[in-house]
Design goal:
Shape: rod-shaped
Strand content: 5-15%
Largest sheet: 2 strands, antiparallel
Number of strands: 4
Amino acid sequence: MNDPTTIRLTGHTAAFPATHDARAALRRYLDEAHRGLRGDADTADEDADDIVRDLESAIGDRLSTLTGPALDPVTGAQMAAILTEFGPVSPAGPLPPSVTPRPRGRFWCRIDEGKWFGGVCLGIAAYGGFRVDWVRTVVLLLTLVTGGLLGIPYLVLLLVLPAVPTVTDYERRRDAPRPA
């Protein structure tokens, strides 16, 4: 079955001596490439034919360096090694970038889990990535320094900000894709 035969490839006038195994492997490779490119929605049939012809020519160039003056036939193992170098044929056009929606991101809220007075400080801590005890300390000190005037914006935030049940729920909503 491994009697010598010849392979004629696009772009090469000379035929390459090869075994039947090598010829069958090359035929399978080129057929799979052609079928894969024709099945691609972005590649026209004429473009698929051109790509396969270019691939044949490149394989012929590689075979011409392999076959020496003794004209030993290319074996199935040699052909498999050459085709492995070329690798599988993928669609000609660039793949469209995957459309991944951007996450919602940080947002202002008050968090009910572990709240002391309305959960505003816990919401500020979750928004900024701070420790809640530091936020509570700063709010308390600023309220004392301003003579209680910081209490008014705190009450407004308590009425205006949406409530989120837990910090985990806040993180899930923050990382979730934006609604369309």
